[in-house]
Design a protein that fits this description.
By secondary structure, this protein is mainly beta. The chain has one domain: Porin (Beta Barrel). The strands form 2 sheets. Strands 1-3-4-7-8-10-11-14 form an 8-stranded antiparallel β-barrel. Strands 9-12-13 form a 3-stranded antiparallel sheet, with no helix packed on it. The structure holds nickel (II) ion (NI).
Amino acid sequence: MKKLLVAGLLVLAINGNALAQEAGDWKIRSGPYVVDPKSDNNDTVNVDAGAALGINFTYFFNENWAFEVLAATPFSHDINLNDGGAEVGETKHLPPTFSLQYHFQLGNAFKPYVGLGVNYTLFFDEELSGPLAGADLSLDNSFGLAAQLGADYDLNDRWSLGANVRWIDIDAEAEVNGVGIGDVEVDPIVYGITLGYRF
Ligand code: NI
């Protein structure tokens, strides 16, 4: 009986240790992400929300500090005229984001974290349609700050479910037929739901 108890405690101790992130650990997370631009993001046009499959890689320097790279398949956004709301085109973008994260250790399966970093957004395949068909739209790439809040819930010592929300400063100069129509202040809130794997 005493042996069994000791064995049981030993298993608990091993599992308890296995749940904590350690220096040198990696975590990969993937799932659906939504990029929801702020409303009124340009005087003339409005860039709507888009969704994509996100994937992020996190490297733990120790149990608290980590570096994260967020990548995704391209997000596609409709562009509407502010005046009347007609759809006049679409754009795609890739928003790679690099963040330094602080992970709180609460000693249980719930793992919240905060992060701060930089984002580089590449716009491509800008296309105009409807009343603006045939015109040439271009959006400049953007470099800006990115802040995030997130949490993972450990299902076991490898797999976790997570959610994260980010604010990213994305401002892109827009031109139609080479004529500036002002900055598009995309400044989106980005939401992601992820399945994570730690190794
Ligand atoms: Ni901005």
